[in-house]
Write a structure and sequence with these properties.
Elements: H1 2-22, E1 26-31, E2 38-41, E3 44-47, E4 50-55, E5 61-68, E6 71-79, E7 87-89, E8 96-97, E9 103-104
Parallel strand pairs: 1-7
Antiparallel strand pairs: 1-4, 2-3, 2-5, 5-6, 8-9
């Protein structure tokens, strides 16, 4: 009887460890070579240049946007599930155009 109880508890512990490992935090990195560009993840400012970010568990996609002088110049969704320790390079276009036809050129500081 004790052996069955021990096996049942062992099986329960093994299963709970297996399920918890399926939904863990995912560390990723983002790189923007233009140091003056502000990087946002899910509308939260995270920095400039090389960013190390931990994606909360259970998240499959993140929204990355970039701003220059308060104007959004880049916006993209990234699939991050299973991309542990992946480097995402942000390729910002050199000439920015908006639907109004206005063109904005990056200002180097």
């Amino acid at each position: 009887m004790k052996e069955i109880r021990f096996l049942a508890i062992s099986l329960l512990v093994a299963l709970s460890m297996g399920f918890s490992s399926c939904a863990t935090n995912i560390p990723i990195s983002l790189l923007c070579n233009e140091q003056h560009i502000e990087i946002y993840i899910n509308e939260e400012y995270v920095g400039r240049g090389l960013i190390n970010y931990v994606v909360p568990k259970g998240t499959d996609y993140i929204n990355v946007s970039c701003k220059e002088n308060g104007i959004e110049i880049y916006n993209r969704n990234y699939y991050v599930k299973g991309k542990k320790n992946q480097l995402f390079e942000l390729d910002i276009p050199k000439d920015y155009r908006y639907s109004s036809g206005q063109q904005i050129k990056p200002q180097i500081k």
